[in-house]
Amino acid sequence: MKSGLVTIVGRPNVGKSTLLNALIGEKISIISDRPQTTRKNILGVLTKDDMQVMFLDTPGIHKPKDNLGEYMVKNAISALEDDVDLVLFMVDATEITDEDVYIDRYVLPKYNTKKILVINKCDLVHGDPVENIKDKIDINNYNEVVPVSALYRTNLDKLEELIRKYLPEGPQYYPEDTRTTEPIEDRIREIIREKVILLTYQEIPYSVAVALEEFYEKENVFYIRAIIFVEKDSQKGIVIGKDGRKLKEIGTLAREELEALLGKKVYLDLWVKVKEKWRKKSRWVEELVYS
Fold first, then answer.
1. What is the mean pLDDT of residues 160-178?
2. Where are the domains of the chain?
3. pTM of structure
């Protein structure tokens, strides 16, 4: 049997979380079209008859503007420094940015781990995706190059074959039914945050954190009370909405997904509070995101 740790890295918003979910066959990481949705490393487990892969989804590597951004980049880099067996460097076929070039030239060469260049969103470009990026990304730095569409699962079978090729022989580390090691409380918080991101705009998605105040089961119902933290009073008003409509919409979408996740009825109680400039303060970043 083959087994090992595979880290997925890249700049923000190239589809790393979408790829993880597609490979696992279950939603493990929240997703949105906003950059920097993933804030910490998340482990997903894929088990086949002859292989078990521990995928590590990471925050996008970018130039940080605050303490939260610094923590996110450190988290992503740390995923390259662990006992990693294979690195998937993901880029967006529609645009190669300076961040992509920086990762290709200055981050990944520091590590001797085998690497696969994954060109995502190949369904959105004409011509050969590999040829389209060769002038900016040195494909010779990679053991393999594979174009995919994580959203439509295009060529993921080929990617899976390549992952199997480069994984070492090893034991099965997790039971067959394990899909993630993320605590259920963290998954609840992330689902709520995802709905806030989905239904708000401007700077709010970047300013939101969710804290779980209560989570317990009684008479076959899960009771959840959570606080949505923002940085300004104006943001609080937007999240709540006129007559509380926006917050109710957020709660409805979150509750539906939580009931599917938990397999039981959920009573969800959401509150919104202001914690000024929390992203710039290490104490609050650690407590609200990394605790």
1. 97
2. 2-166, 184-288
3. 0.94
